[in-house]
Design a protein that fits this description.
Keywords: Signal. GO terms for molecular function: endopeptidase activity; serine-type peptidase activity. The chain has helices at about 1-20, 25-40, 45-50, 55-70, 75-85, 120-125, 185-195, 205-230, 250-255, 275-290, 300-315, 365-370, 400-410, 475-495, and strands spanning about 95, 150, 160-165, 170-175, 235-240, 265-270, 345-350, 385-390, 415, 435, 440-445, 445-450, 465. The chain is an alpha/beta fold and about 500 residues long. It has a domain at about 130-185 and about 220-430 and about 450-495: Alpha-Beta Complex (2-enoyl-CoA Hydratase, Chain A, domain 1). The chain has a seven-stranded mixed sheet with strand order 2-3-4-5-8-9-13, sandwiched between helices. A three-stranded antiparallel sheet has the order 1-11-10, with helices on one face. It contains 14 helices and 13 strands.
Length: about 500
């Protein structure tokens, strides 16, 4: 009986073995599909295929194919693809996680939020305003002698204060933990909500104005702190973006608060693929809305028409910028963003214009549709002295946009460690690439920002004053050493003719 039962199980065991068998060709096909997707959708591919990109793609491809050829199971094959993706060292090129559950046949009805029934605190919580993570300085300046903490970063945005370097030099230090709208203190949202609620019942239509008011308060708070540093006559300002994972375009705007110089934003490119069209459409919608402003001057109308024509031409030219990028797996070529890169000009990190004079056209809506940083015109030059930007391996995306523009256009000195190397990332919400057999999914960046020297921001920002980790040194000692390096640099700058 026992033998018969065992024999009866053999067909089922064989069936399961077949079902679970390792299919090498499926993984090789998935790898080919991933490379094709990168050729068509990855904005940084031509950069990493150049000697300047620091990645040997032919060698990476050869290694990945070899690992797939010797893989013995799905886990080994999956690891080979993961190693291929991580080999680019682009933080935005990453796994999108497992395939989501198929659509639920009959999901429970989800009621809309009735904002008219919420008080300001509840409404702001529902909108995502909450105390920030990473509020503390990335190095413990709070614990050093001579430090005066002026804002804790909780009750008011931006932990900040005055620190004293070993030689007695006084520096203003301000922490920017992240660049995004919800980083305004919850109190800023509560105030904006309360002010609108006092005028009548709230609804969905009030959300955008409240967010805009809270975002403006975020910038005003930063400007006020910089003005305070100026009044206290500190020798320099240290902006701490260590561990700042990024956020949004405020990383570009905020640079204008740290200088009276004319700051010109970085050139931006999008991948020349259909997924770029929604970004161009979004810009066209904003520009056409600005055309409806009744007090638009002839100069403003002309600039709007030129901007609209530029974005229409970009959208129409997407297909023409396509090219065969399969060469990247066989050779390296010098970085030429306007060569065979599958990139198309998208204006600047600030919109169509890289710069406009303050109060351009006498109409902020028109100016900010062309040059987004016009939103902070009233706050330009809140500080106009020496600036240092603290970065580390956790400074990414919008934090890199801020740091590179501060270095390139403001003349700030970078201190600390090299940034993450995430670069631009995404300007449209394109779905992840899903491989046909394994169904692994990957996020593929669709935009690129160029630095003043023409290099790709995805290379990360390198410090002018490196403060590397030292064996046996704690964070507090490293913070003290960093302040000493900044003070020494200030002395050296002052001694120059």
């Amino acid at each position: 009986m026992r033998l018969a039962a065992t024999l009866a199980l053999i067909p089922a065991l064989l069936l399961n073995s077949t079902a679970d068998a390792f299919e090498r060709q499926d993984w090789l096909d998935d790898y080919a599909a991933l490379k094709t997707a990168l050729e068509q959708r990855y904005a940084n591919l031509a950069w990493f295929a150049s000697p300047q990109g620091g990645v040997n793609l032919p060698a990476l491809d050869k290694r990945t194919r070899r690992l797939l050829e010797i893989a013995e199971d799905d886990a080994m094959a999956k690891a080979a693809l993961s190693g291929f993706v991580s080999g680019f060292r682009d933080g935005h090129l990453s796994s999108a996680g497992p395939v989501l559950q198929a659509k639920i046949a009959q999901p429970p009805a989800l009621p809309n939020i009735d904002y008219s029934r919420l008080n300001a605190a509840q409404a702001c919580a529902a909108l995502g305003y909450a105390p920030q993570r990473g509020v503390a300085f990335s190095l413990p300046f709070e614990s050093l002698p001579g430090t005066t903490l002026e804002a804790d970063g909780l009750t008011r945005s931006f932990r900040s204060g005055v620190v004293t370097a070993p030689d007695g030099t006084r520096l203003g230090v301000v922490r920017i933990a992240r660049f995004r709208q919800q980083d305004a203190s919850p109190a800023a949202c509560v105030q904006a909500w309360s002010e609108r609620q006092a005028k009548g019942a709230m609804s969905e239509a009030d959300i955008k104005p409240v967010k805009e008011a809270a975002s403006a308060a975020w910038m005003r708070t930063l400007a006020a702190q910089l003005q305070s540093f100026r009044e206290q006559k500190v020798a320099a300002v240290l902006v701490d973006v260590g561990g700042n994972p990024g956020g949004n375009d405020s990383g570009d705007w905020a640079t204008r608060l740290f200088t009276a110089r004319d700051v010109h934003s970085a050139r931006m490119l999008m991948v020349a693929a259909p997924l770029a069209a929604p970004y161009f459409d979004e810009q066209l919608d904003q520009l056409r809305a600005a055309q409806k402003e009744k007090d638009a001057t002839p100069e403003a109308r002309a600039m709007l028409e030129q901007s609209i024509a530029a974005f229409e031409a970009r959208k129409a030219g997407i297909a023409a910028r396509g090219c065969d990028l399969s060469w990247v797996w066989n050779e390296q070529r010098p970085w030429q963003p306007y060569g065979c890169s599958r990139l198309i000009d998208a204006g600047y990190a600030s919109g169509q214009a890289d710069y406009l004079p303050a109060k351009a056209f006498g109409n902020k809506k028109i100016a900010s549709s062309i040059y987004w940083a016009a939103e902070v015109d009233d706050l330009r030059g809140a500080w106009n002295g020496p600036v240092y930007v603290l970065t580390d391996g956790g400074s990414a995306s919008s934090a890199e946009m801020f740091a590179t523009l501060m270095q390139d256009a403001v003349g700030a000195r970078i201190v600390g460690r090299a940034s993450s190397g995430d670069g631009c990332g995404f300007m449209t919400d394109a779905p992840p690439v899903e491989l046909p057999h394994s169904h692994l999914r990957y996020r593929v960046p669709n935009c690129t920002r160029l630095r003043a020297d023409g290099s790709n921001e995805v290379a990360g920002v390198k410090p002018d004053l490196p403060i590397q980790l030292a064996d046996g040194e704690g964070d507090r000692a490293r913070a003290w050493r960093l302040l000493d390096a900044v003070a020494a640099d200030l002395r050296a700058r002052a001694a120059r003719p």
